[in-house]
Specification:
Layout: H1 5-14, H2 24-42, H3 73-76, E1 83-84, E2 87-88
Antiparallel strand pairs: 1-2
Helix pairs in contact: 1-2
Amino acid sequence: MTIDAATVRKVARLARIAEPEEKLEGLARELSAIIDWIEQLNEVDTDGVEPMASAVHMPAPMRDDVVTEGGDPELVLSNAPKRAGNFFVVPKVVE
């Protein structure tokens, strides 16, 4: 599949990314190479290959499920830069 400068321009506009006109041809070549590589991967025979979540098999660490009295809020919050009652105060991250 070949991607041309017009397609890159359209995708950049849809993604609200401002790209200078002189960079569109280079981006089109790069994206075409990526798509070609993905198409090449689609040709690989993967029948009988089970999907994996990680390249390294690691069992989940287990611990005893025991009832405790819980944490001491004063001890937990003793290092908090800001607190309100028994809660951490953090800066707003969503506008």
